[in-house]
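[audit] Reproducing an earlier prediction to check determinism. Same input, same settings, fresh worker. If the tokens differ from the archived copy the diff job will pick it up downstream; this log only records the rerun itself.
[audit] input (134 residues):
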Amino acid sequence: MRKRIMTSLAVLPLAISGGTVSAEGKPEGGEGTNLVKLDPISVPIIESDRLAGALRITVVLDATDPAAAARLGDRQPEIREAAMAATLEFARLHASGFRPVNAELLDHDLKAALGSVDPGIARVLITEVSAKSA
């Protein structure tokens, strides 16, 4: 059986904001840098009670201000938990290893879930998304 990989990539323009994100996910340098990177998330795609593949995403949070970015860096376990729950629900309802991922809908779901955890999240930036069949 031949495996199929469907991948969609979004490029995050970090250079525009004039800064980078540290390995710990906290913003570094540059004025106007309010980005917090989360560790990659991978959740199973379940179809008809069987493992059908995996959905993988990488997310960067755009905080409303530097204080919110620092707070988000400290609250990463809570934020990651909400992101994983939203991604798992999205995978259950909308993902397949045989069709492209609807990144716009995933972005909407993540923004709603993470916004309820901390109002300091201005945007959820999906920097990478892929769905792979099992």
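[audit] rerun output stored. Observation attached for the diff report: Residues 101 and 132 are 10 Å apart (CA to CA).
[audit] end
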